[in-house]
Amino acid sequence: MRRAALHAFRSARRVPVWRVAGRKPRAVSFSSSNPLALRPSSAGKHPSFIPATLHSSMHLRNFSLAVISTVVASGAWYAYQGGSSQSAAVAGLNRTISTSTTAYAEDPSESTRRALLVDNDQFYTATINGEEPLRKQTDDSDRRLLEMLTPEQATQKLRKNEESYLVNRGKGVVRYDVVQVPSNSPIEDDHAEKIVEVPSTVATAKEGEANSDWMFWGVFDGHSGWTTSAKLRNVLISYVARELNTTYKAAAADPSLLTPSPAAIDAAIKQGFTRLDNDIVHNSVEKVLKSNSRRVAAETLAPALSGSCALLAFYDSQSKDLKVACAGDSRAVLGRRGPNGKWSATALSEDQTGGTPSEMQRLRAEHPGEPNVVRNGRILGQLEPSRSFGDAFYKWSKETQDKIKRQFFGRTPHPLLKTPPYVTAEPVITTTKVEPSRGDFLVMATDGLWEMLSNEEVVGLVGQWIEQQQAGNVGGNKTWLKSWFGFESKQLPVETSQEAGTEGQRRPIRQQQYDISGAADRFTVEDNNAATHLVRNAMGGKDKDMVCALLTLPSPYSRRYRDDVTVEVIFFGESPDTRTVEINKEASAFEENSKAKL
């Protein structure tokens, strides 16, 4: 802190001063014990830009860069040293004020840029004059910029990882869009997509067709690291497809069946999930103990020590059945347009956490006599998802954990650990009959999106995006859209949810954090990629300052305001059958030589 103040003082002669801007995002405070626990801001909705302790020291209209640089340095320092007291930062500010008395005039010819200040768990926007960006020096290998992104830079960051594919296979899917926006570094989310061409010897195809398609889409929300979600990206679809192949083959060989029952398909998907988790959590231990090598332990146990939720959609082009398998708190929502032109939002999964009533009931029944199996909405008071891959510390026995810690590395078993496993990777599966002719679409996303938008807002936003695509206001290739919608463009409002209860769906808590109203006029349409469109509006929409501020915040401090976000939007419809899947370049950030995946 003292070094930051000294550096700011020494550089005061070289760089002009800051000037406080009039625009201030609404501030939110957090409790120090839990970065995501909301509590009312003591400063109110619009706190003063300069901390109250500094008011008596500000006698000059123009104040030196040393003072303001130290404000920023203290904010950045607090962001990375979140457990330190605020009084030390304030003391550092006062010391700098007392030693720096020279005011520097602004040069009106110099350029003005936006910047983001983070201080006392609040962030503000301001203007900075001059060409030198504001920096946080750590060491030779790392440098943090606090200069606020411009709207153009924010758009580049939103679109950096977007993908879009046009599916020309005549099997009921016309397009799917994907985007990821990280908050953690590296991002702990992951995703996977695969289309499997299935011969009629495995699954009965339509008359006159030699094969059908199995289509998979998955989003994986990692926690405590990225290794588990990366493992799921690589192999989960293969595990599930292998089990489905066995099940469909057995049914095809039976003249009385030809196709497996819905229950048999569900069982195959569950078997794929649980077999993979068993390999990650238990078979890995056997391999490590047999090798007696710390190097092997480090490589093999990584996916077991971290964790990941999994949301997998499976679409059978023959039956038009869409199955959504959920293990964790990611969510899938179906959008369907009714005869009145309005869209309805139907949740195809339930958020599975320690705070979900159905999960609490299940856990208490499985672990009688353990009142703390769920505490404060978390498993054993710590882990929020009640179903996930990995998370071995909630699945290994105490003896296994002691052995791993003694021979290799690990942590002390939880003091409440009695009858593991407390967490399972077995998914809950829903089945929905898709109607491609009605233009159904599916939105799958990690909880980073659902913390910001409700189900109805997400479906309404995709409907709004479709309307703008039809009107030609966004640009791009409309061939897929013409084959999907043949009727005139109308208003696309979303139906109010008619579901009796929403206890399995958590509310978008970030709207309270950002003090955002539910008014639809805050939304905008600027992107060719439907998934990117959702993320932009989740982070502020028309409020470009909010979008820029949220995307400027560096990791790990950004995690207090937004999570990693992964979104997939799948559009069902009738497309020409050219047996191809091609990259939609107008909505993708691929390099020129990239090829579509099949």
UniProtKB/TrEMBL annotation:
Residues 346-359 have a biased composition (Polar residues). SMART domains: PP2Cc. Residues 338-359 are annotated as: Disordered. Residues 195-572 form the PPM-type phosphatase domain. It comes from the Eukaryota. GO terms for cellular component: mitochondrial intermembrane space; peroxisome. One of its GO terms (molecular function) is [pyruvate dehydrogenase (acetyl-transferring)]-phosphatase activity. This is Protein phosphatase 2C domain protein. It comes from Aspergillus oryzae. The lineage of its organism: Eukaryota, Fungi, Dikarya, Ascomycota, Pezizomycotina.
